[in-house]
Structure formats: C-alpha cells, structure tokens
Amino acid sequence: MPLAAVGAIALLAGFVSVEPATAQQPAAGQAAAGGQAPAKNYKDRAEYDLFSKVTQTTDPKARLEVLNTWQDKYPQTDYAQERLQYYVVTLSQLAPNDPTQRQPLLNKCQELLKLDPKNSLALYFVSFWGQAVGGATPSPELQGQVESAAHGFIEGADAAFAAANKPANISQADFDKAKNFRLGVAHAALAWVATAKKDNATAETEYKASLTTNPDQGPVSAQLAKVLYDEKKIPEALFQYARASQYTGPGPALPPNVRTQLSDFFNKAYKEYHGNTEGADKVIAQAKTSALPPSDFTVGSAAKAAQAAAEETNKRMDADPAFKLWYTIKSNLVGDQADSFFTNSVKDFEIPGGAEGVKNFSGTVISIDPPDKPTKVVLGIEDPAKGDATLTFTEPLPTSALDTIKIGSKIEFSGVADSFAKDPYMLIFKDPSIPGVQTTAPKKTGKRRR
C-alpha cells in the first residue's frame, strides 16, 4: 500500500499526522503482468490485519506497539519500506516529548534511507534530531549521517515540495513555508556539524543560509551569535544576540529566562565594545524586525577608536613640538602622581619656557568672559572644541586685545600655571603673556628650566 498521503502530510512543518489507509488484501502469489516487478503480497491474513491496524491507529504509542508486533512476527516482508515509513512518522511524533525515542528514530531513518536514499522525510528527521541526539560532542559517525542527510534534503527539496505533492487541504503559502522551515533546519544542521569540526567559517555561512531561508528561528540566531563572537566579529555577533534575545515567534523562540540572559549579555558586551550604551536601542529595534543585519551595519569599537586617536596624537606630536610638550604635561597631570608632578615640575615654572625649543603654546579661543572686558579666556589646545587651558587676568584685557582674542581664533601664549583640574582636565594660567597683545596687568613670571 503506498503511503503518498502520509508522506505528503509528513512533509509539513510542526507536526506529522497519519491518515487511515484503505488497504486491500491481494491474492497470495499474485504477480504483475507485462514483465513488471511482482506485486507486493502479505504473508498471510494476520500480516494484513497488522498492517491495517497500523494504518488505522491514531495514537502514536499504540501504533508503535503494533509496528513492533508486526516487525517481531514478520521480520521479512514485502512492505518493509512502508513499515519503515510508518516507524519514522510514529517515532517523530513521540520524539519531542520522549527523548528515548530519538535514537530509535534516527536508526529507522537510516534503514529507510538504505531502501530509499532520497526519502525527504527521513533526510529531514536525521537533520533535525541528529543535532538533539549528538549535542555538543557528536560522534564522527553521527556527524557524517547528519551532514549527508542535510545535503540530501537540500538537494531534493524542490522535488519533494513540487506542486504535485501538495495536499489539497494545504494552501500553497503554507506548503512553501513548510519547505523553507525544513530547508532552514537542514542548513542549521550543516552549521552544527561544522561547529563540531571547529570550522567556524562554514558554520557562519550555513547559519546565515538558514536564517535567510527561514528568518523565524530564535535559537539559530543565538547559535550564529556565538560563532560570530568566537570569530571576533563583534558587531554582527551583537546583532544576533539582540535578535535571539528579542525574538518571541511565530517560529521557534528561546525560553524567556534564556532570552533575559542573552539580553543582559548583549547590554554588557555592547557597552564594553562601543564604550557606552549609545545606539544599543537602535540595534535592538533592527533586530526585532530582521534576522540578519543590513549590509552597512556596524557598531563603533571604543578600542579601535582609541587606537586610531592614539596614532593620530603620535603623528601630531611628531609634527608639533609645542603640542608634544603640552600633551606630555597633560598625561602626567591626569596620572596617579598628578599632584606631585604639578608641585615639582609645573608650579612656579615658566612654561613652555623654551623647553624642547618651544617658546609658546597655541590654542583656539572657545570662550571670553565677560565678553566686553574679559578676565578669563578658555582655549582648546588638544581639541579646538574642548577647553583644556584657561587664561585668567588680574585686570580686564584692554579693548585692543579683542582684535586678536576672538572666539574661534587661534592665539599663542606662555606663562606660569596657577592650578589645574584633573577631571575634566584644565590647566589654569595666571596673567600669561600673549604675543601681540598688551595686557593691563604685568605678566606673572616663574622659574626657568635649566
């Protein structure tokens, strides 16, 4: 008896059902005409009754008992392939809630594939349940079985899901969705094998293929996240951790407690990598609606930004001795021995004072206070938009000084530092000298470096 109806329905995602069959008992010894293969025969009426009972038993536990009885009494039968297919369908119904039936399911799938190497049902279940049985340390034999089955299913998917195989009571949309669901499983199975072989490049490719085929897979997003994180592809990994932590359905989703753990990990890892939480909400919003990030997706690295800034600072110091001296002073004043350095090397000294051949520092005017008769001018030396030097004057600067000291203009100065602030950094000068500007009060002088 052909199992076309059973096979077609079994191809659908979610669950597998068995329809009652209407088997007719053929005459003993009946042969096909025209030189064709002989017709299948039952050994006797008892075998026919067992087969009929299998097709009519809807409870999978009860059906498994009948199948076992049939196999025990008739180990050799013309209906070996049909019986194996019923075994596969039955065990697949029991496997989700009974782990002890998963290895027997794989065994029966392998037996069925020996008779029918392209059986998409068996290929799919080996791809799916092989991962559950093998766990994190699958045997080489199981890896080979899963890899072969997954490739076989992918190669035969179009034929298995051809229009002629669609059950009449299943919409084309649902049929296509079932195909994509199972293709996603097959690609994930190949990624699982690759991970066991420590082949992260292939695992990444196959997990992405799985999510491209079927985006609705929270667990696969989590698996891809780990592979990417291990490969140090942090921005993409962060996206997948966000996806796995936020995805709740309609496809397979991780348990709430696992999603919470992944969400906490995402927040921690994002802050460590980016330097702060800015932009994390945008990544989460994208991940809620897409299984894979857009092609231009990125997350800025705080470490890379700091490295780039350090390289740029080094280049600037090589080209500008005045800045090199300024930066050296700052580095010491924000360090652990800041107070000691200020007392022994900055306070009461004329700076730059000709050290390293530097006579003046230069910076960009950020603010003048008060605007009409200023007694305080804030400069940005390292960054023209961020103040790090304050020039204070005992008497207001004359009006003529404002021709040179304008917001946004660059001026030079030298003098004696009066005090400093470590965070945010600021070095404060009292009555410094500004070339080309006549101040009201005499400049404060300090010791010269030898």
Describe the protein's architecture and organization.
It is a single chain. The chain is α+β, with helices and mostly antiparallel strands and 450 residues long. It has 3 domains: 4-212, Serine Threonine Protein Phosphatase 5, Tetratricopeptide repeat; 215-300, no CATH class; 319-430, Nucleic acid-binding proteins (OB fold (Dihydrolipoamide Acetyltransferase, E2P)). Helices cover 52% and strands 8% of the residues. It has helices spanning 4-10, 45-56, 60-73, 80-94, 102-115, 120-134, 140-160, 172-196, 200-213, 218-230, 234-246, 256-274, 280-289, 302-319, 321-333, 338-346, and strands spanning 350-351, 361-369, 376-380, 389-392, 410-413, 415-422, 425-430. It has a 7-stranded mixed beta sheet. The longest helix is centred in the middle third of the chain and has 25 residues, at 172-196.
Residue runs with pLDDT of under 50 for 5 or more positions: 1-35
**Distance between termini?**
106 Å
| Portion in helices | 40-55%
Order of helices and strands: HHHHHHHHHHHHHHHHEEEEEEE
Which fold does the CATH topology of the largest domain refer to? Answer: Serine Threonine Protein Phosphatase 5, Tetratricopeptide repeat
Number of strands: 7
CA radius of gyration: 38 Å
Integer count of domains: 3
Spatial ordering of strands, largest sheet: 1-6-7-4-3-2-5
- Give average pLDDT, whole number: 90
- Which geometry do the CA atoms define? rod-shaped
The CATH architecture designation of the largest domain is Alpha Horseshoe
Largest sheet: 7 strands, mixed
CATH class of the largest domain: Mainly Alpha
Determine the strand fraction and express it as a percent band. Answer: 5-15%
Structural class: alpha+beta
The DSSP helix count reads 16
